[in-house]
């Protein structure tokens, strides 16, 4: 049985001594500029504004020096290499996706274990030998070119695929002839947040104008346009289908119904709410603007007998499915197909095998209900346990489909499902070098500061003693209607097998309970998110799971903001903090790439004096207090992150290093040729988690049993 051993009493006393003396770490000196902004008559200094230029030689040198300090410390940790070896062992297991049928063939992805990117295979039938079809690992030597899109044309002739270089959100599209395996000359660039919507001998996609040189990773993305690309032609010949020059901040995305009768255009100006347009592809009619506001969310599922099925939270905070008559598209003519469930959130819909599969979220875990195409409830799909389901892809007449089930202690399993008999058949599973049966997951509910009941998953070894001495890792997000559902995560296993507890709090701001839960963690109610997380930590301490000196916290992106905010508010509650790729400057986030889209969750410093003061009060950069005894902090970011630009993390750690007067490390780990997280090669992920665990064990005064 693996467990943690405490360091000697002397070492423990040193670790927990007063941190009020000079730091033992020699951080590079970060020069201060004299930039001052004025908001509603209030002047705010921004001394590290120069770090926003992440492509300057001066910033590059600062990054180099920061990494030298960080890696010098990490490399001194004696068990770091053993952690990497154990992570590599656990990681080295085969993982296979659920197959999907397209163009009369089956496709699936597989990773043998340590491949940097998963490989795609093709089968003529489920019984035939899989053929290696597309291997993203051949696109770069170090795995930093990743696959982002994989879309087969309706006639099965072509594959459209997208790649990202170095983790950037920018995409490049290519075309592959499925029969010959030849990659055609088509090469499309400057694409972001776009699918590949096949129609006849080409596809619709959305792109942005070519950015100014030097601004590719930080410049604002405006003037989105929808184009049609014909296979075999140059991008310069693509046909402009839709744009709105009067609204350069709006973004467009295109999809096509399976029968290729309608082009669907979704219009967004933020991460919440969208306008909905459609255009007949049979008559080449004008674009019809069905919904032209951004108050609610609308997503077209499919076209069925002259009706567009729309998944929406319009008049349904927990979502419903409505039917839109294309001949009478006005909102007052829509009818209800699947009404809102007042208790559970409708998370997604798919139509396959003549049935409608509704994926509901019940207290943050999946429940699959099956309906007829007339909206009549038929039955539930029986699931093996409490967990998360994805899949049920296919065409309306496909008799079979597939889904994947997983949970915190349940590795992903693929099931083949018969929509006529409602029977699930095990299709594929994997073996892993980890005794899953020794661990358990429980879901509890705790009270936040204002009395709101918040759910939390807690994962640990069976027979855990609630004596307060268990190292605990608390994770949170709390924003943008994102739900944290129980999923298997190989990164967490080393922590668990060393006696650690892993906890996930389902904070307000997320989507676990629908639109109201989301809105309760936005704008002037954002403090609710921080209160929920702090209450989760207090619950773990008060109920004997852990103590502050054994509590590590982590969050990424909006979750990075969360970590930065809570350690400013209750620093003594935590021992280790990982704000990853976080939104740390709440006064200027809207000025980079797509940051303005986040305003519906955050508000902006220009909205009003009240909003400015609210943001400034919790902004991680601006709320740093030199009088506080912060937990050990390791910020992580990447040089190709054009979602949350690394300047957020740069300015934050520079401010923290300048203000903090204690002995704990205030460090930043800056990855090269990586982005916001998606598509990061396996080798880099293992290296990052080696360092997160090494940092945590060392700062808690614990030695892992490896």
Automatic annotation (TrEMBL):
Classification via Pfam families: Peptidase_S9, Peptidase_S9_N
> What is the protein's species of origin?
Carboxylicivirga mesophila
Give the protein's recorded name.
prolyl oligopeptidase
Q: Which UniProt keyword terms apply here? A: Hydrolase, Protease, Serine protease, Signal
What's its EC?
3.4.21.26
Q: Which Gene3D superfamilies would you find in this protein's record?
A: alpha/beta hydrolase, Prolyl oligopeptidase, N-terminal domain
Domain Peptidase S9 prolyl oligopeptidase catalytic as annotated: residue spans: 487-701
Which N-terminal residues, if any, form the signal peptide? 1-17
